[in-house]
């Protein structure tokens, strides 16, 4: 007899503008079958003398005076993986509850239900339903089937790690000469300790360290802005293996999309505060710096592979640049009708041409088979153009990854 899967728990966190709004939202969540629901003033532990956080400054001063709801939902009888589609619908439903009361869903965490229930902070507990489970539909919803991928790209090797490291260091030496004038994100490449350190086991590890040095954990800073010319020089350097150039171009895609991605993730919060979105200075300056380098990248268009052209067209769209060569070049890419690549190409084309009427159907087609896009699009406060820009890097990188061959995969 098959073992029954352990009960799974999800703790949702909502932020609401008042205690009354928080209590009303908590009552709704309890009505949805949540087991434990607590209401506390934001940064509750800053006001508890026995807490480590007592008297500490707020980590989010914008929420001063707001209230939070912490609600634990338990789901039984199914393996965690089978619950993915249902959990997406639950997050959409909880976010709707928060919006309906003037707030926003701040986050969620998952784990074994017994563990989450054991560590649930009961301060401010307003609803408790011992042993309650959220009713699961039968059958459980399933993810939509994906359309077939486009034709394979011409394979591009990333190169041996030692050769790629050597080529990258050579570019740093050529551009900056010495460690005194090098940007912070590049200085470690010219450090003696790096030069005589342990060699990298894989090119991917090295490129990952480089990307993290430029934008730690994907967050753009002044360091990222300073490093953009260096990354572009690497993408244009023929001594860097083709696959590694494509990986670096992917980094530029992600950095250029950092502003729209933040706007989409914070859309409900921005609306709850009644304000317009303002990009961070680093996100704005990073995108502008990449846009300033685009003419150089696009000047190589005729000599690039189809996969690189695909990525370049997406980068051009992300930077808000109108370039007829990139737009016309999309039509020549191998993207047969009915393929997932064709849907991504349609998104790039609508963004490149600033075609608002074409953007919505392009996003609808993507959302029909991409659950993460559908979940983001479910928020009524999400700007469609920002959504298209936010999801574009992941779509392009997933597609071109099939054409990047790691050194360990070479025959």
Helices and strands, with pairings:
Layout: E1 8-16, H1 19-31, E2 36-41, E3 67-75, H2 84-100, E4 104-112, H3 113-119, E5 125-128, E6 156-157, H4 161-176, H5 184-187, H6 192-195, H7 203-214, H8 222-236, H9 242-256, H10 258-265, H11 267-272, H12 281-298, H13 306-318, H14 324-330, H15 340-352, H16 356-367, H17 371-377, H18 384-400, E7 404-405
Parallel strand pairs: 6-7
Antiparallel strand pairs: 1-3, 1-4, 2-3, 2-5
Helix pairs in contact: 7-9, 8-9, 8-12, 9-13, 9-18, 10-18, 12-13, 13-14, 13-15, 13-18, 15-16, 15-18, 16-17, 16-18
Structure description:
The model has no long low-confidence stretch (mean pLDDT 93). Helices cover 50% and strands 10% of the residues. With 411 residues, the protein is of the alpha+beta class. The two termini are 45 Å apart.
Give a quick summary of the entry.
This protein is an alpha+beta fold. 50% of the residues lie in helices and 10% in strands.
Number of helices: 18
Indicate the percent of residues in helices: 40-55%
Low-confidence stretches: none
Major β-sheet annotation: 5 strands, antiparallel
Strand order, largest beta sheet: 4-1-3-2-5
- Please tell me the overall pLDDT: 93
Rg, Å, rounded: 24 Å
Strand percentage: 5-15%
